[in-house]
Structure formats: structure tokens, C-alpha cells
Amino acid sequence: MSRDERVVETQLGRVPRAPWRVAARCSSGYPQVIASPSVLGDGDRFPTTYWLTCPHLVACCSVLESAGAGQAWTERVAADDALASALADADADYRRWRAAESGGADACSDVGIAGSRDPRVVKCVHAHAAATLAGVDSPVGHAVLESEGAECEHEDCAGLLLQSGRVPGVEGARMTGSGASRSAAIDIGTNSTRLLVADVSGGEVREVVRRTTVTRLGEGLGETGRLSEAAVTRTSDVVSDYLREAAQEGAARVRAVATSAARDAENGSELLDSLASLGIEPEIIAGPREANLSFLGAAYGLPAQRLLVCDVGGGSTELIVGSISDAETPGVEVETARSVDVGSRRVMEIFFDSDPPSETELDAAAEWIAEQLRPFFDGLREHPRSMVSVGGTATTLAAVHLKLDEYDSE
After folding, report:
1. Under DSSP, is residue 85 helix (H, G, I), strand (E, B) or coil?
2. Fewest C-beta in 10 Å: which of 74, 87, 154, 351?
3. Can you tell me the distance from the alpha carbon of 410 to that of 396, in angstroms, rounded to the nearest whole number?
4. Which of 253, 306, 244, 315 is nearest to 60 (CA)?
5. SS3 of residue 319 by DSSP
6. How far is CA 26 from the centre of its chain?
7. Rounded Cα distance, 131 and 88, in Å
8. Could you read off the pLDDT of 176-200 as tens digits, one per residue?
9. How many CB atoms sit inside 10 A of residue 382's CB?
10. Does a structural domain hold residue 173?
């Protein structure tokens, strides 16, 4: 892995989609912008030729986006012919540069900066800032860089790399210092979208902010096989709020994942395009990967034992059996994991036509759920003695069992 690959992966908190090259660097030599062709290695169309990687600028642009900068610029352009002309010129340059990055064949020639068909509409200040740093003369990008500063005041990426354990030029180096890295994670589920901002140091995680918002991304998915425009908008709005909060809390990195609804929908790319306009590209994780992450999160801090982790989501349920090692050799080992297409919203949409549901509906749902889960349990060599259940369904059931007057997820 090259130095640039290590740096960009650490800046983004993920491996960027290939192919890419560094299009702009800060005065300290770290990448600020990467460039990609209009068709990526997996065959997906990719209109955002220049992608902002600088954590300082990503955070600044996220705050601007959340404050309505895109709409404000669009209104300014509508009232200023000179500004509209300058933006149209920048948009035309962007399309030419994308064709050049793509070897002359631009699969996204129908759209300009940030995938906008109309150059007078400013969809994403991140994209304009990135384009300007790469050499496109965007008045929006220039204004953003002038107001926010094109670089951080210190060599922030050096500290970020040390905290993440990826020292520039040293393959596989691990963090040995005591400094904590503040990071944010966003989980885009079928029913809820979650945010965690935490300080991570030496294997310890200290929670700073935790949020859960019901966004119902999978609403109607079982009937249509597609994400609705309203669901994508709801989810994008919440992610925008989360990005603003993460930036305000000083998170140096933001990592986002999307699960069952996004991977099952025919138009999952529409969600990715909407979120790309906010400057973030979630990873749509496969079921087994989701199951492993569920186990790692649920097992954190628990004593040594063999246990079952059950994560009931809106579209799927992750079942994982694994072992937590003793204190002398800390760690976890996953024995078997499976993601089953059984979730609270999926079951509701398939079986329940009345509210409250009838006994017949409940019996049919219970029978179907048991049939879906049985193969996993039949395949276990030995059933664990302990189970940890996570997610909103588990805490809601606990609240009902405890006869709480008000729901409290804690």
C-alpha cells in the first residue's frame, strides 16, 4: 500500500472506490482532493470527478451544507446573471475535465458539478470546493475556500494518521501513544438511522454523543422493491443533521454504513447519490459483515464466555455465535454468523393489515419467523447459554416487559 493510499483511507475512514488519483495536495503534502473517472472499477457511473478528502474542509463544508448553503447559493445565482454565467463556465469546464479523467468517454456527460443537470443549481458545496482545488474556476468553491481557509491551521492529518495507527510511510505501524481519536459512525438501517461520536484510544471507546432517529428507509420496500423518494429524503435529512453534529463535536473521521434496505432495493444507488451530495459515501455492507460487526459491538466489555448475539433490525436479523476471550488474551472469535431476511418492518408489511394485529396475523407471523430462523439453530453444534439482544426491537420488548410508563432505551 502506498503512502497516499494509507493517507486517503485514513482521511475518509474507508477504502475509496477505485480507480483514483490525487488531484490536489495541501502545503504539508497530504491529499486534499482525489479524482476518479466517470465509470468506476465495479462498473458504477460516478459523476463526482473530484472528491474532497481533507478532514478540515469536509467538516467545514458539512456545517455549511447543514446551514443551507446550497439553497442560499442557488438563490444568489438566480438573482445575479454574472454569477450564473461564471458558474455555467465552471460547470462546462468540469464536464470537459471529467471526460479527460475518463479517457475521453464520459458516461456522465448529462450532468455537471455534483451531478446537477442545471449549472445554476448548487447541490453540494463539497463538490465545488474540491473542483476549485483541482483547478476548476468555480465561484462557489472560491468563496468556500476563502471563508473557511483552504487548509487546517496545523498538520492535522499527521495526528490523524498517528491516532489511527497508519504512520505515513510505515506499513502496518500501530498507534502507541495515549492520544484519543474522535470519530463518528453513522448506521443507516431499514427503520432507524443512528449516530455515535466517540473518543477511541488504546482499544477503549468513550461515548460522546449517541442518537437514534426513526427514518423508515424501508417503508414500502417489500411491495415495490424500491426505496421511495420520501424515504430517501427523510434519511438524507437526518444524515445531514448527524454530519453537522459530528463536525461540531470535533470528529476527525466519519464512517457510514447502510444495511438491509439499501442492499435489497433496486434503486439503492439513489440513496448513495443523495448522500454523496452531502459529502459522504456510505458502504453498503453485506449480511455476514453486518453480523460480524453486530457481534463485535455487543461483545465489547463483556466477560469471557460463549454467547449468541441477536440483532433485530427493520429488514433483517443478524444471528452470531462467538466467544469472548479471557483477560490475558482479550479478543473475540466469531464461530458462525448469518443474516436472515426477518425484520420488524418487513414482518409488519408482510403480515399485519390491522392495528393492533389480529391473533391470526400474529400466529402467521410467528410461524414464518420460526421457519426462517430454524436452520441457523439446527446448524449449531451446541447452543450458547447466554444471549445478548441489541437494537430498538430488543429495548422496546424490554420496556413492555418491565411495564415502563415511558420508553427509555437505556
Report:
1. helix
2. 154
3. 10
4. 244
5. strand
6. 25
7. 14
8. 233 457 889 999 998 899 999 998 7
9. 8
10. no
For residue 113, which amino acid is it? I
Highest mean pLDDT among 14-28, 281-295, 356-370, 395-409: 356-370
Among 226, 257, 284, the domain boundary falls at 284
Three cell numbers, residue 84: 450564473
pLDDT at 116: 87
2: pLDDT confidence band, cut at 50, 70 and 90? confident
**Of 148, 168, 199, the domain-final residue:** 148
- The CATH number of the domain holding residue 185 is 3.30.420.40
C-alpha cell of residue 258 = 447502510
Q: Are 316 and 254 in a shared domain? A: no
By the 8 A CB rule, do 188 and 258 touch? yes
Instruction: Using a pLDDT cut of 70, give the percent of the chain over it.
Output: 91
3-state secondary structure of 346: helix
Do 236 and 364 lie in one domain? The reply is no
Mark whether 126 and 216 lie in a shared domain.
no
Task: Please count the structural domains in the chain.
Answer: 3
Is residue 78's pLDDT more than 90? yes
